[in-house]
Write a structure and sequence with these properties.
The structure is a homotetramer. The first copy, chain A, is an alpha+beta fold. The first copy, chain A, is 47% helix and 10% strand. Chain A is built from nine helices and seven strands; from the N terminus they run ααβββαβαβααββααα. The radius of gyration of chain A is 25 Å and the shape is globular.
């Protein structure tokens, strides 16, 4: 009778073990199915819908990764183009990914560069050829904290013709009345390589930029700067949007552009609303499945 | 023998419990996988394919949330732009989200505004700067129950040039022969802020709108109104679509537009078919993964 | 001993039943997860990569549903527009969905219409206002087995201007040297309703179509016909594609179009390759999540 | 007692068997759910972020499959168009899919063709009508290892007008100052079939290509060649991108194009960065759900 009493218990234990094993096994497999969505969101969630938390280089790098994903997801860049942020700890330095498609950039890709745009500690990572765009603009413009270099298809036609890119919609109130163009031939001659591949060319680009938030690069793209990562991303996006709209408007007739006062006034108001755009762009980039 | 008879029963009960536990556990996890689709649909499912149920402020708010997701998903708005609905209970009041990207708006974001476009009970939520667009149009136009304010890229060129936006396709039969344009300089002078940021500017916009369903806003976007949320969304979408088509047609040659009789006749017919568009847009917005 | 021998057996039976129940239960739930993809595919899978199986009205209806999803997924139609197939059993009749967005059409929405475009058995379903497009073309064109009515944005400008839509790329070799235009004013006068809402207008449209595979409808869209559903869908897609390309080419300069021999020759070859397009479009439509 | 001792054990065995069966069954079904994503990635994962491994025909075929998915996903081809790679083992031969939409191509679709573009071992598979494009270019151009034949909508207008396709952006530095056009009428007369459906037409196309990396095909599309699969795909993509940008720039005014030195210099630099584009395109194609 003792054994009979014991037996059922043992059998129940074995069954319990088997059932738990089944549950854990299924649970693990089902988690695999749902995982991509849930882990993808975590990178930007902390900033969503709240004021940016206290500034630090760690936070800047975190935003830089999110910004890379956003400019790729919004079509501002494709496999090429790059963005950087100035170091808070050492303002002569800046952070920029290793040579990689922006959509795929992760925290481990971010490298620190010195005031001559050389890597502080490359650890085998290859830097972008055109990192001098960033280093020389940071040198010339102490007000700039972040830079986006893009090849936006809508923007290139304005750099290649003598039709000025001007603010035609309020979201691009940051644009000057005539956006400056960097003609690399003026500094490197006809036998140039288009790319800003050394300090001298970077300095010439920074000079063409002047005090503007945007400089067009003939046959190439644009460099867009801002006092924060979010504002630089916002400007890169709406530079593209304004170019599309201006291009269409010019085909219809002679458009009325924003005058300098309108542009300045609306830019001031919208600067306070940059987070609204960032929030939805970050959400969309996380859901698009084109980055990790 | 009693115990032996009892024992198997107890074991079966234990096994039954374990099996049920397993089933419930798996069921819960699998539901997690299917949840985004099924719960996402619930917001609009009740209206799909049937007459709208009895009107109420609660139902209007529900549709307002769905409408926000639709105009974002269809590219009528990006992170900016907003839509509102008049209150049924208090027709001098209206409902509008707090300052937020339309794709992310939820029921909890919807605020009630009074006849002066001020929040009835803000509870810490920040209203849109341009809520006066809504309040002043509701004041001037008792027939209007819903308003969409957008920055549709295809529409802005028509507001910036002297080329009139006219109905070129039947879906936009609601458009007048010449869509009015609001030039903010005419009321706020050259040193204006583009945005409709107070009651005076809202009233001037409402005056420019007149009896039209659409008013273009120079350098900015448009305001589109309707007797229901669904009709306002429909009009906002097809205003954009008509602008794209007219823009292409004007590049080809001199197009034939809908005459006033054609426009009025087809508009009357299509008004009865607005739900067909709403249904597919709501379905698509729920599946797009860009809003919660 | 008998009972003891029996008991374990009974218990095993109970356990077997529970296990089977668990398996079936889990299987059903997991099928729910995979269902959208797997059942979605079944509608077109039988035809993929092989010759169409023996023709029947049941098979035509199955393809009609798939075709509705394809034209929506490829942007040939939005919430509006519709497609039909002639009945094999009763060639004076045709099949067409009830009034519904094409992306959402299911087998249960397909209605049979008689030679006067009236429903054979409506069962409470509302037909499309413009079903006369289909009925009158089937009457006038015995060679036509399927019809797509669309509002393709790229096509409308050609219907609204006097710039002829002509074959500029080989995929649209089916297009005539000048695609005919239906101007509804010529039959219904200036006070018309744009829509083809009765038999008389349908007959006039069929007359404008003549022997062409495509007729443009001024201020409205197009009707595209074919000897099979797949060919009609193929033509609707490449009519749109050709319009986009021709529109761009005309902005650059005076393009060389396909001459009548080139068009006829390549059309003959491509007709044998229609399934290649259908296969990838069906695959894409099934994965797009915008229809059930 | 022996039997009593044995019975529970037998029951446990039965339960164990049932539980294992349950686990295996569930596991199999859940794998079905996750399979499309996980197996899709494996094709390109080995190359991501590293130097291409040692060349072999097996590796070329693997890349050819990935390349097919990329050109479909990036809109360079739709259901039509095709790409090939030269055989390493037998350089007179080449690999090309059977007649199929590029997005759906798998390893089993890849056929080997001889120097006359005839299948070595068809095994019932139907080859593309235009395989002679590939065979004759490989014969005429020993430097070419891979070829993309596309119908890119943005490219066709340049083949149909006398407006030359020229490099306007640095990514397309590989383009010649004037991209050659193949006018099939010049070799097959006015009564031609547009398609390159035999060796004679293939040879004429190869002659039109000359030493260029791209030849436009009037009323049809383009053929793009490269020294590797990745470079051919890169060029096919940026030929399309350059066409879009040039088209927009020409509407604005007279653009400045890259001069021959700029084009050559930047092409040399970018050739080393082709993997950066490939990596993100492969990632995106795997996530797009339009191929297996």
């Amino acid at each position: 009778m003792f054994k009979k009493h014991f037996c059922p218990g043992r059998r129940v234990l074995v069954l319990l073990a088997l059932s738990l094993f089944t549950c854990v096994f299924i649970s693990a497999m089902v988690r695999q199915v749902t995982a991509p969505a849930s882990t993808g969101t975590s990178a930007v969630a902390p900033q969503s819908g709240s004021l940016p938390s206290a500034d630090s280089d760690e936070k800047r790098i975190q935003e830089l990764v999110a910004g890379n994903h956003i400019i790729a997801d919004q079509g501002v860049v494709d496999g090429f183009g790059h963005m950087s942020v100035r170091s808070l700890k050492n303002p002569a330095h800046f952070f920029l990914s290793q040579s990689k498609a922006p959509a795929l950039v992760t925290k481990d890709d971010i490298m620190e560069f010195d005031e001559n745009s050389e890597p502080v500690d490359a650890r085998g990572r290859t830097p972008y050829v055109e990192r001098y765009i960033h280093g020389e603009i940071y040198r010339a413009r102490p007000d700039v904290q972040a830079i986006v270099h893009s090849h936006s298809p809508a923007v290139i036609p304005f750099g290649a013709t003598n039709v000025p890119l001007r603010p035609i919609m309020h979201m691009a109130g940051f644009l000057p009345q005539t956006t400056p163009i960097f003609e690399i031939r003026s500094v490197a001659g006809d036998d140039n390589g288009i790319l800003v591949e050394n300090r001298r060319l970077g300095a010439a680009l920074a000079q063409a930029l002047g005090k503007s938030p945007v400089v067009l690069m003939r046959g190439h793209g644009a460099a867009v700067v801002g006092p924060t990562i979010r504002i630089a991303v916002f400007r890169a996006f709406y530079t593209q949007s304004n170019a599309q709209i201006e291009s269409e408007a010019l085909k219809l007739g002679q458009p009325v552009f924003l005058n300098p006062m309108e542009a300045a006034n609306v830019e001031k108001t919208l600067r306070g609303l940059v987070n609204r755009a960032w929030e939805i762009w970050a959400e969309h980039a996380n859901g698009s499945g084109t980055k990790r």
